[in-house]
Design goal:
Blueprint lengths: L1 H4 L9 H9 L2 H11 L4 H14 L11 H7 L2 H11 L4 H15 L6 H11 L1 H11 L4 H14 L6 E2 L3 E2 L1 H10 L2 H11 L8
Antiparallel strand pairs: 1-2
Helix pairs in contact: 3-4, 3-6, 4-6, 4-7, 6-7, 7-9, 7-10, 9-10
């Protein structure tokens, strides 16, 4: 399958392969496969991981970041649908949180726009649901904490027109039991330094 072909572990951190996959239209193809086979959790997992790897690509076509391309092809929408549909599958949850983390952690100048889009589409709530549902699963907790950290970088940014951007993001985090969920992760995984 295309998802397995472009899976991050196949690349050995080779950005050239990622750029080639981008040029060949991999983000759109992966999103289409994910939409067609939403009922198959393994395809959703592989698709999220493949998009996650592609999101790190330094591909630059007309100043559009990899994250923006993935958003534009429906990759985030497919990921969020997979997280909701396959809530019992820890591997799907880890893969989806990995995509959210990579989309939001980019140092690309457009990453603030990508983070905002991920937040508006429900990325923060999806990450918190994954953490809450898989409290004992260390990998889900670790990747979800990273995703949440990347998303909440929004709280440190200021919107020129609207003033501090932090209130909606922090309020959503608190209202969604974010503090409680993070404290549970820290308690359940006290010996995992990455979660602490």
């Amino acid at each position: 399958s295309l998802c397995k072909l472009v899976a991050p572990e196949k690349w050995n951190s080779n950005d050239k392969n990622r750029r080639t996959a981008f040029r060949l239209g991999a983000p759109l193809a992966i999103a289409q496969v994910m939409c067609l086979y939403i009922h198959i959790p393994e395809i959703q997992r592989d698709g999220c991981f493949a998009l996650s790897g592609l999101s790190l690509c330094r591909y630059d076509a007309d100043d559009v970041s990899a994250g923006q391309t993935i958003l534009g092809t429906g990759g985030l929408e497919c990921c969020l649908r997979a997280l909701q549909r396959h809530a019992e599958w820890a591997t799907v949850q880890a893969a989806g949180c990995c995509l959210i983390h990579n989309l939001c952690s980019s140092s690309n100048p457009t990453s603030a726009n990508v983070r905002k889009a991920v937040f508006i589409e429900g990325g923060l709530l999806a990450v918190l649901r994954a953490m809450d549902h898989h409290q004992q699963h260390g990998r889900v907790q670790n990747i979800a904490c990273r995703a949440m950290h990347s998303l909440l970088l929004l709280s440190l940014q200021k919107d020129e027109e609207d003033g501090p951007a932090s209130l909606p993001w922090i309020r959503a985090f608190v209202d969604s039991r974010g503090i409680e969920i993070v404290l549970a992760a820290m308690s359940n995984h006290a010996h995992n330094a990455e979660i602490q």
